[in-house]
Structure formats: structure tokens, C-alpha cells
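Example 978.
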Amino acid sequence: MAVQWREHLLQGTSTGQDRKPGRGRGQQGPPMRPHLLKAPPSLPIPTLETELPSRENLWGTYTTQSPSSRTLLTMWEPGAGCERREVQECLQQFQVTRAQLQQIQAGLLDSMEQALRGQANPAPAVRMLPTYVGSTPHGTEQGDFLVLELGATGASLRVLWVTLTGVDGHRVEPRSQEFVIPQEVMLGTGQQLFDFAACCLSEFLDAHPVGNQGLQLGFSFSFPCHQTGLARSTLISWTKGFRCSGVEGQDVVQLLRDAIQRRGASNIDVIAVVNDTVGTMMGCEPGVRPCEVGLVVDTGTNACYMEEARHVAALDEDRGRVCVSVEWGSFGDDGALGPLLTAFDHALDLESLNPHAQRFEKMVGGLYLGELVRLVLSHLAQRGVLFGGSSSPALQSQGSILPEDVAAMEDPSVGAAHVLTILQGLGLSPEVSDVELVRSVCAAVSTRAARLCAAALAAVLARLQRSREQQMLQVTVATGGRVFEWHRRFHSILQETVALLVPECDVSFIPSVDGGGRGVAVVTAVAARLAAHRRLLEETLMPFRLNCEQLAGVQAQMREAMAKGLRGEASSLRMLPTYVRATPDGSERGDFLALDLGGTNFRVLLVRVTEGGVQITNQVYSVPEHVAQGSGQQLFDHIVDCIVDFQRAQGLSGQSLPLGFTFSFPCKQLGLDQGILLNWTKGFNALDCEGRDVVCLLREAIRRRQAVELNVVAIVNDTVGTMMSCGYEDPRCEMGLIVGTGTNACYMEELRNVAGVAGDSGQMCINMEWGAFGDDGSLGSLSTCFDDSVDQASINPGKQRFEKMISGMYLGEIVRHILLHLTSLGVLFRGQQTQRLQTRDIFKTKFLSDIESDSLALRQVRAILEDLGLPVTSDDALMVLEVCQAVSRRAAQLCGAGVAAVVEKIRENRGLEELTVSVGVDGTLYKLHPHFSSLVAATVRQLAPRCTVTFLESEDGSGKGAALVTAVACRLAQTTRV
Ligand code: 0WK
Ligand code: BGC
Ligand code: BGC
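Predicted structure in complex with beta-D-glucopyranose:
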């Protein structure tokens, strides 16, 4: 196989320096031979009555006859006058009236908008395919890029080496080489085609050594494709004479990568796939007005334009623009072009490789123009109107008249000479009179093509007017394709007709300089930049992606630390006895006051425990930072102030109700109502409290506030309060978990395992204070530089390392540090560091929950970031979303590893094969984050498969739990007193 291609390759022509400026591809490259058409059946001549619509001829084209001359046809007798009329009648079929052009414009606009809205039934005639190109070129793109063009110019493939300087107006002429694609490859298997392409690439690189460094390739693939990314594109259907098997429905980038792999050219990386219209549009020098429309008329035809992203239903975007490939070639496949189609169009379609498809393309695309002319000439020859009724095998054979022949024969100055050359080349001996008639046929076919193309372009411009809500639209259209190069009249007719159909649009046309090769390189440069950004993002987030082994490692380390802590040995887990020996049994009764300090809010609660259940009245109070970080006296006086305010509000003044104090900080409890604060956490840092019994501190404050009677019965940690609160409903609840401002857990441990507490039977609730897990450095391997930055910036550096990787007080900060890092790498926000992003705590953990919520479209993500004064693109928003997901996922997994360690401990404590247990949970992060709880549960299932764990979200918080602990203490005190 390879050898055979080599011959073809030798046929390939390297065109680089010899290209004439501004003329895109120049005259070289393979002829646009439609030799891929099937053998023709005999050409049916339509009956005028049925086929030809009535037309008012406003264009004054090739006939001076009024339309009414049609009826004369039936009476036609052989002779010159009649022949001319027969020709005119025949050509009249190619005339398209203004009204018809406006109908096409309106019909196409409708189809475009149906497709944009995502209408499925009936399926719109055009596809409107988003291309993932979100902006026109900035002119800053730079680098060297390999470009492979397949499909834009029919039976040829082109390889280019494009250098983008990134300097406005400074252009380096691309080096390129064209290769003729053998017919058997265009109709062969997909593997053959892509191997041929890979072969051409190596051939080009052999001929144009560009060094062995990693080569970034942009793939211009000019066929209808569903793109799901800049480098992922699935072929919908072949057009233009291609019909390789095993490609439709496949990702063509992967097919090319596989072929390059098979060829062993591992240094070529396919970065982007681009439709030729997009390459044409993006190849425009960013001038005064950016090119926002790309129009190609080569073997096929199509256009793309920059649509408002919010109008593209397929995209979940509301801001910015996206380039949409219209794929207007298929317009009319639903019959909308019926009245315009001549018998010649039907004949051409039936003998094409894709009958009934691409009907619009078959009236406009270069692959078909020559064939249409041939069919008309062969018809008129058969009718004895041309060439004296004689024909020739060449005239009867498909593809014998090339589109460039049509353009040549039409050429105002040398056209007649071309007609003679070309017809003689077809074995005909034309009369002088035939020459003019043949030129009229060419003009009729190409004029119709140009006008139809104009009507389609007018539809795109009308869509832009609507999309931009601008009546007076100023727009630049980049044009590409050899029909434009060869057929100057095509261009002028197009311009005239557009001006007539959308007079309010100020349209300027810019011919693409090199057939879009540069544009493909620009898109590839953008894709390369995004790919590089993605790699940097992955590298940055990789340490946050914990695998099962690492999580099992955390679980094992936690088990070890638990065992040491319980034995009273040095451990980052203090495993503090809480003197809570049982969960409630439902017999508790009475009114209790409860305080809940340490979470987002400080609450004072009245808890009434009756036969019928528990009623809670509570009041939320704030603890200002200056109080939380002031003196201990200030803090506890503030607490008593709130209690007094609550009592007054609840009419409890002067009553001395038993009080349970949820104090969510590490305390060494010496009894139920004695808790020595070991150290503050979570942003609290009141002086003269650490090492003191906080119940005493509270009682002193009560004493300082005369006339207040309070009976502090119990001090509990919020984890304990939460476990008790949920345990009241579900007796299997033997663990308490908090994931809020801070994080921690407690559970019912066998007393025999608790050193320092008398007794071997029964259980006691242990407050693990797992927030400090890893403070001995045991989490070093998991800690990232961002964790270290957050820790260093905290008021308790080196402390609560586990908490600082999990809880709400820190996740936002971790994300902010990562965003700062990615901005400094230029990956985010175009590298612009903003003051706001450098502000501590400006990125709230709540933003993670908002940004990750499934219902929040990317647009809302952008809104959150813009509120932070960040210049956000949709790529930025996507990357910020990924950062949030990575940080919260790690937090949930680490938390899950901790829970798995505890429930496995309980199971082993009881020597059980299987354990069923419930965990009472509270905390804003756990409750509000859209995925946190499910990720915790999934991690527990993975690491503790022999435990069936139910997570019970506490409704009333730990205040109720504190009251229940107090109630139990009061009940026990009562029974001991009697
Ligand atoms: C509500 C509990 C309270 C606990 C808090 C933790 O009643 O004891 O401290 O949850 O969640 P955070 O408010 O810190 O998110
Ligand atoms: C394809 C388009 C392409 C156009 C011009 C059509 O046949 O479907 O994707 O842009 O030809 O090459
Ligand atoms: C404290 C714990 C508390 C947890 C949840 C941590 O900072 O040390 O005592 O349970 O936060 O509020």
C-alpha cells in the first residue's frame, strides 16, 4: 500500500515560496475532477409544465425573451432562432428571482434558528454545529504549527508549516505541500485514508525538516462533525466525493492520532480539529473589524459565524460568543429547494455519491458546477441545438468539465478561446455560435450558484442582526475556496446580491490569504494554550486526587493514632473522654437551657423534654471577632449577656434551669461539668482561657453578672451533642461527626480501652479531636503547598492540619491560594492578579457549594467570580469549578477515611463480622455542599465494607444533645440522691 501512495506523493507539489500573494492556493493542486460520480442513467428532460416554475426575470440575464416565451416551446421547429430560444428556455431554469432568493434567505434563517433552539422534530435542514472556538483571533497567538487540511479541496490534502509571530501585521509565509488523494483512498476504508494522511505528514516533514521537538498539529477537517471539544470531533456524514468506511460516527482526531501512532511519528500531537470555514474566518488579520463570518466555496460550500453563546441551546452558556458551523450544504435536503431544482440538478444528485443529500451544496459547490454545465451541454447537444447535434464520449462522461473550466470559459477577456480549447479537448468541434451559447450556459450555472450562495450568506447576516440586536450591522466576511479564486464574477455577483438582500448590512469581504491554513494554526495556538493550561491545572490538582491506597493509608494512620491516644500515649489524636456513658434512653424529662458555642453561630436554647418529645426554642447570637479573639472574660461575659437576653425574651428571667454547654473546642474533661480548654481552634483565640476549666470561666461570668442564677450541669463537645441529639431518635447512633467551620468526631468506645478512666465495663463517648490529626506530621505526604500556605496564614499554624484540609473555615482559602497560583501561571484570568483575589477569606467556602451545585450553570459560576472583580472567561469558570471539585472531594474523602477508621474500630471492639451503626452529623459544609455527604458515604463504603453506616443529619444541632446529656446527668443525679 505505502509504495502505491508514494507515487501519488511524488505527484504532490510543494508550494511554499512560489505562491502568488493574496491568491490563496494559486493555480496549482489537483483539478476539481468530479470523477467520483457514479455512471449516469440517460438524462430525463423535464416537461416544462411540470418542472419549471414561473419566474419573473428581474435580472436581465442571458435572454431578452419574456417568460411567456415558454409556451412557444411546444411549437418549436428546428432552425437558428428556435435553437437560441431552446437554449434560453433551458437556461431560464437556472434563473432565480429576487423573491425566490428572499424565500431561500428566510427558509435558511428559519432552519438555522430551529437548529440553534435544539429543535429535533422535524429536524432542521441545517445543523448549526458549535465549534468550541469562542473568540476571534487576538493577534497574540504565536508559535510554529503543523496544519493538515483534509476535505477542503476535494481530492487533495495539504500539509502546512505555519509560524505565528504574535506581532500584528508581521506575517511569515507558511510552507506547504499538496498531495493528491487517490480515488481508491477517498472511497476506501477510514484506516487507509488516515494512514495516507499520516504518510503525507511524514513526507512533508522529510521535505521540510522542522526539528524533532514536539510538533503541535491543527487538523482542518472540512466535513459536518459534532464537536465535543477543540480536539474531539465525530464525523456525522461524508460529503464532496468522500465515502471512506468506518469513519462516520467516529472521533476523527482519534483516527488521525492512531494513524500517526502507526506511522511512529510520536512527536506529532493533534491539538485541535477545525472546519475549513472556521480556519478561513480565524485566518483573517485582526483588522479594524474582526472577521466574524467565514465563507467557503470550494468543492463544497459552507459558512460559519460568531453566534451569541446563549442562543445555542446545545451549549450551557449565557455569555460570550461561539463559532457555529452552519453546514448549509444540506439546506433543501427536506425538499425546501424543490421549485428551484432543475432536471439537471436532479440528474446530478441521483448520480452523486450521496443522493438526496447536500442539495444546496450541489447547486453551489465547485465539485458540481462543471458537471451541471456538462449535463446542460450534453442535453442541448442531444437536442441538436449545440455542436450541430453531435456529442462526444468525453462530453458524455462525468467530471469531464471542471469548475475551473467553467470559470475559464466565462472569463470576459479570454473566455471564448478557453471554450474552444476545452470543447476541442472534449473531442468536439464547436461552431462560433456554439461558443457564445456555451458561455451562456456557464454563466447561468455559476450565476445561480453565486446568487444562491448570497441568499444563504444573507440569512447568516440576518441571523447576526437578530443575534446582536443590531439593525445596522457592520461585519467582515472572510472568503475562502478556489471558486472565489477562479471565478471573479462569482465574487461580484455574490456581493451585489448580498447588498440587495440585506441592504442595511455594511458587509466587507476579505479573501483568506492562504486558504485558512493560518486560521487553523491560530485555533491550534488557542487550543495549545488551553491544553497547556489544562496540563498545568492537572499538575496543580494532582496532589488533591487521592486514590484508594492513600485513603486506606489515612484510615490506618488514624487507627494507629486512636489506639495511641486511648492508651494515653503521644498522639495527634487526643481521644478525650467525655464522661458521657450512654446515649439517651427516652426517659429524660424537663426544661433545660443549652448553649452552643463554636460553630458558625452562637446559640442559646430552651429545650423542653416531655413524653411527647423535645421542643426547642433558640436564639442565634453573633460572637464578634474582637470578642472571640479578645480576653476570656470578655468572651464569657458576652455569653452570659446573651443568656440573660434570651431568658428575658423567653420570660425565664430569674429561673435557674439546668444548663448544658456545647463548647466545640478541645477540652480535657475531668467530669461531665469540668472541661479544661486545651487550645482554641477555628479562629477563636480569647486570652487566659487555654488550660482553664471553661465551666468555671462561665460560672465566674455568671457570678460577675449579679442576679443571674444558672446551674451549669454539663459541658459537651458539639460532636457529642450531635450524637446524643440523633441518638435520641435512633439508638444505633454511636458516633457524632461535625463538618462545619471545624471538623471533629466522637464515638462510643469500650471503657476497657480508655486509659485514665476508671472501669472496664460499659462504654464512654470519646471526643477524638480529629481536627489535630496529622499535627505530628503524619499527613505530610498528603499536604500540598497550598495547605501549607493556609496553615502558615492561620492564627494557629502547625495545628489542626486535618481540619485545615477538610473544614469550612479553610476550603475557600485553599481554593483561593490555588487560584492565585494558577493566575500567576497565566492559566486563569489571563494571568491578571486582582487585589480582591489576594484578599484573605474573600473566597468563601460557601462559593464551593454554590459553584459545584449541579443546577448552577457555568454562567452563575461566572457571576460569582465576577462579583469578586475577576475578569472571567468560560474556560476560567470551568477551571475554577474543577479546582473547587478537587478541593472539596479531597476533604470529603479524608473525612470518609476518618469515619471508616472509627466504625471499623467499633466493629472490632465488638468482635463483629458486620456492624450496623448510625452517625449523627452536623455542620454547614456537610449539610450544604451538594456532593460532600455522598462522597463521604462512598469513601466509607469503600474503606469499611463490613460496616453498614447510616448518616443522620441532626435537625436541631447539638444544643438538644447538650440538653439531653444534662437531662441524663440530672436523672442519674436524682436516682443516686434517692
Ligand atoms: C451545628 C451544631 C453546633 C456545631 C455546628 C457546626 O449545633 O454545635 O458546632 O453545627 O457546624 P458549623 O456551624 O460550624 O458549620
Ligand atoms: C462540508 C463542510 C465544509 C464545506 C466546505 C461541506 O461539504 O460539509 O463542513 O465546510 O464542505 O469545504
Ligand atoms: C474543635 C472541635 C469541634 C470541631 C467542630 C474543632 O475545631 O476542636 O472541638 O468539635 O471543631 O466544631
